[in-house]
Amino acid sequence: MRVPQPVQRIVSLAPSLTETVYALGLQDRLVGDTDYCDYPPDAQKKTKVGGAINPSLEQIVALRPDLVLVTKSLNRLETVNALDGLGIPAYATDPHTVQEIVSSTERLADVLGVPDAGATLRADLEHHVTDLEQRLSGLPPRRVLFIVWSDPLISVGKGTFIADAMRLAGAISIVDSAQDWPHMSLEEVVRLQPEFLVFAASHSDSGQNDFDVLAERPGWRGLDAVRNRHFAVISDAVNRTTPRIVSAIEDLARQLHPEAFSPHPEDEKEKKIPPPAQPQLSLQIFNSSCGVLTHMEVCACAL
């Protein structure tokens, strides 16, 4: 099934894809999304087609989309097959690393007919990631526990995109599990002694509240990170495979490795030296920089 070009009417069945459509500047073409598509706030005003697991096919048909966007990890094969039977093309993404999020975004831009926007966004994201790698080069990673849920205690496995995001932020999870969302015992966490606890929250205050609640629970004072109040709160953007995850990575890196972002004394000294009177050479530095689903043969490189 071919995707009509240009794609003028889009329905998104995943919050991450809704965010990405906005990041590409195509929000005016988004005619519908799910009940859980809440970012940016304007996405909440779009026509809702239900949940990601059981969207309303009738509502989708009524919106007359040129293309429906789905993710392999969230949406069901039955939904894709049903759309195919109705003659509605679907495109799926399925990134598992930050680099795959970046490249998946660019491929989606190509499918939606805005390759320049995709290339520009990719170049910007890669610039930020490269800058982080340079800043953190040579610094030992912080051993952290990323807390998805506190009761029961759930963290992230080593194969998740969140674990990859933490690695780019100069952190390594104490959790060595092949499961995506492993349950942890407090005894095991105390034995492993993470240097920092990491929380994702929509507001920094709520993340601090989460830490304060944990600190009062029996057993948690056995963690040096709790006694020393070593915790980081980052945007819940880290929970979604969208371009916005890079800003969450930068935020975490700044909290775990503030020394990498402090100006060097030499730099400060240079700033105080008045510029010479003679003409100077001015350098301009600039950055340059799958498919359609008829069955669930999803683009494995692409959420």
Describe this structure in words.
This protein has 303 residues and is of the alpha/beta class. The chain folds into two domains: 93 residues, 3-Layer(aba) Sandwich (Rossmann fold), CATH 3.40.50.1980; 122 residues, Nitrogenase molybdenum iron protein domain (Rossmann fold). The chain is built from eleven helices and twelve strands. Strands 3-2-1-4-5-12 form a six-stranded mixed β-sheet, sandwiched between helices. A hairpin with a 2-residue loop joins strand 7 and strand 8. It is globular. It starts with 9 loop residues before the first strand and ends in a 10-residue tail after the last strand. The relative contact order is 0.15. The C terminus is likely disordered.
User: Which oligomeric state applies?
Assistant: single chain
Helix content: 25-40%
**Which sequence of SSEs, written as H and E, runs from N to C?**
EHEEHEHEHHEEEHEHEHHEHHE
**Known CATH architecture of the largest domain:** 3-Layer(aba) Sandwich
Shape: globular
DSSP strand (E) fraction?
5-15%
Give the uncertain stretches in residue-range form. 265-303
How many domains is the backbone divided into? 2
Calculate the terminal CA-CA distance, rounded to whole Å. Answer: 21 Å
Based on CA atoms alone, the radius of gyration comes out at 22 Å
Report strand order across the widest sheet: 3-2-1-4-5-12
Summarize model confidence as the mean pLDDT.
Answer: 88
- Give a quick account of the main beta sheet: strands, pairing sense, barrel closure: 6 strands, mixed
By CATH, the superfamily of the largest domain comes out as Nitrogenase molybdenum iron protein domain
The CATH topology of the largest domain turns out to be: Rossmann fold
The beta-strand count equals 12
Q: By helix and strand content, what is the structural category?
A: alpha/beta
CATH class label of the largest domain: Alpha Beta
Q: How many DSSP H or I helices? A: 11
